[in-house]
Amino acid sequence: MKRFCEECLDAATAAGASYADVRVTDTTKQSLSVRNGVVEGVQGGTSVGFGVRVIADGAWGFAASSELSPEAAVRVAREAVAIARASARVPARAVRLAPVEPAHATWSGPCAIDPFTVSTDDKLALLLAADAAMRAIDGISLATGEMEFLKCRKTFASSEGALIEQDWVESAAGITAFAIDEGEVMRRSYPNSLGGASFQGGWETITALDLVANAPLIAGQAIELMSAPVCPGETTTLILDATQLALQVHESIGHPTELDRVLGDEAAFAGTSWVGARDLGTLRYGSDIVNVTADATIPGSLGSFGFDDEGVPAQREYLVRDGILTGFLSSRESAAVIGRTSSGAMRADGWNRTPLVRMTTVSLEPGTAGTLADLIADTDRGIYMETNDSWSIDDKRLNFQFACEIAWEITGGKLGRMLRNPSYTGISPRFWGSCDAICSPVEWRVHGLGNCGKGEPMQVAHVAHGAAPARFRDVQVGVGR
User: Fold this and answer.
1) Partner of 359 for a Cys bridge, out of 178, 463, 477, 481, CB 3.0 to 4.6 A?
2) 340 burial class (0-12, 13-18, 19+ CB within 10 angstroms)?
3) pLDDT digits (tens, 9 = 90+) for 202-222
4) What is the set of domains in the chain, with CATH numbers?
């Protein structure tokens, strides 16, 4: 592999590239799903290929191939240089890269039990057992379950001298129960919506979820929601569980702090940002207790790695500190524009895609409010919401609306009536400015998100967010859906 990478880089520099890098990626995937006691699908496959990225005449060029041969190495490298020179004909800011020390390194993610050594029958048996446990609750009309597994090995090399090999495994699983009556559909998911829970790790992360034991609880809640009153429309105190808060962080802090969006370089698909590059160090993003980090070093997180796809080492830095914007998710190119070094946030979703600025593990740091029970006990009146159902946010990530699967009234520091169709709306800095309590580290968890879309053609990134339940004052809830 080292020889192959050298052939790519030598061909690129010989063709006139001032900089070149190559990524060779070998990925294996498997997905399984069941529905009402029936195996709905089992799919799997392997994808192997390489991509060469170059700078020539001050512009980027990229080309890729699934053929790993010396001839392909030369052909693809030359094609990348030709594309860069064609791009240079269009007036644009010349590419400059922030410096990075070229690394010679290897890195592996955690994995105790390789999920690809576990039989498909055993995986389906677990899903079908959870499915049966949900349907055993009278009134459940539909039960579903799914699992996904990924194994990746990646080699990165650059004309600056980097040579990095990385490998990791990802595992995900979740179940959902539906109660349906007279056109009303109530859904409850475990351990999260959006495909369940996702981890960097092996089969051990799936068995730890205990899907079968938790199936009756969510099925029973789906039934109870059918007769629960609708969440009232009012301005009140809102407590969000950690899973919903993770998505809130993703949409209203993670995306707006991607520097390519801030600079206007990423606008066609995902929009730009309400944040400006000059806001660093001055913009109040939230209250004094809001601290948000981007950390690619957390073991077992879907947003962790040893090095990003530019060879920049994984790191931890603050995006928001004491409520003030202090950092961006950046690449070597975007960081150079504002006079900084890269935060190590460049990743591609495959060998045939060029890297984009993507979130790592963007987390709301824990506070000092104790457990969720303590936080509820400290709240005289309000609403507690769990598990995302849907969301909508504008292309600058400023105005948003979220709906959750379930909620409860809070009265006198205790949970009261269950509420259905709960939702809330807000404006990002005002919402985060209303945060007055965050639970302690005992409640803090990292939640993987395997479906973050960005770019054109769209790339799907696997990212993660750490969060503990938190409280927000004067929030509009019960808005129209």
Assistant:
1) 463
2) middle
3) 999 999 999 999 999 999 999
4) 2-226 (3.30.2290.10), 234-477 (no CATH)
